[in-house]
Amino acid sequence: MMKSLYQSTRSVYGRILNTIFEKQNKKYLESGWKQDFANFCKLINQNPEDIISDIGKIDQTLLEFHVEKNGKCLESFYIVGSIRYLLEAKGCQNILEIGTGLGINTALMAQIAPSSKIYTCDLPTEDPAYQDSFFVLRKRDQNAFDTNISYLNIKTILKNSMYLFSEDLPNSFDLIWLDGGHHFPAVAWDFAYCYSRLRKGGILLMDDYVVEEERRNPITRKLPDSISDVEDLCNYISRRINETIHIFPRYPLAQKYVAMIIKD
Ligand SMILES: C[S@@+](CC[C@H](N)C(=O)[O-])C[C@H]1O[C@@H](n2cnc3c(N)ncnc32)[C@H](O)[C@@H]1O
What we know:
By secondary structure, the chain is an alpha/beta fold. The protein has a single domain, classed as Rossmann fold, CATH 3.40.50. Helices cover 46% and strands 18% of the residues. It is built from eleven helices and seven strands. A seven-stranded mixed sheet has the order 3-2-1-4-5-7-6. The radius of gyration is 18 Å and the shape is globular. Residues 97, 99-101, 104-105, 121-123, 129, 133, 135-137, 160-161, 179-181, 186 line the site of S-adenosylmethionine. The site of S-adenosylmethionine has 20 residues, from α6 and β2.
């Protein structure tokens, strides 16, 4: 009883803050986004118009659902841009996604890269975190999940990502979308797995890099999806890997970013 009262209060509070953020986010999309997106495109040597045109080829019902469910789906531009870049460079045979969620970006990748194999991993129902977590999105809409992962080039693995090391998966991936548990320890073993399986020249995208200032913000830190250890993880690894970690806005007014590594 106490728990459900707490959860519903938190969710009402979260929704109000999200509505405020949505308005601010819309303003950003109309102003600053163009330049930030241009910086991303420059890094991967792509024309922004080509990425936008690819986005236009995706099933529009899926995209509308995406916006409706997430209200902020800038990460899809980075995913589509990365696939475009990889397809033009050394190819994009294998893609890994940790954290399927509702499978929206999984379906999007399946459409943009029909000849790639997409492996996506999410928690099984028997995992304790499945019951406890607010973030297991398929609990909210199992039908959407089933439809989105039904593409023939998607293989779904319902396992805690800590077991990926012992799964029979390709030795190397061209693109990895790391978007499972954003806290320690999970995010650290996910990174270790992803970095070790990323091929030379491959791209790792990590969602929900939230800047420290925001994580300490007494109001927004109470938003369930504002909390993440990805920035701490990046601070740790940036002193140990050769590659630069680039960050691109994903939900700027909540100071959320997508971190990107192109493997040397
Ligand atoms: C933010 S959602 C993923 C959204 C999705 N990648 C997208 O782009 O639309 C995070 C997902 O990670 C899953 N997850 C959390 N911890 C996990 C773990 N240890 N192993 C596998 N999946 C996990 C949750 O169940 C949730 O569905």
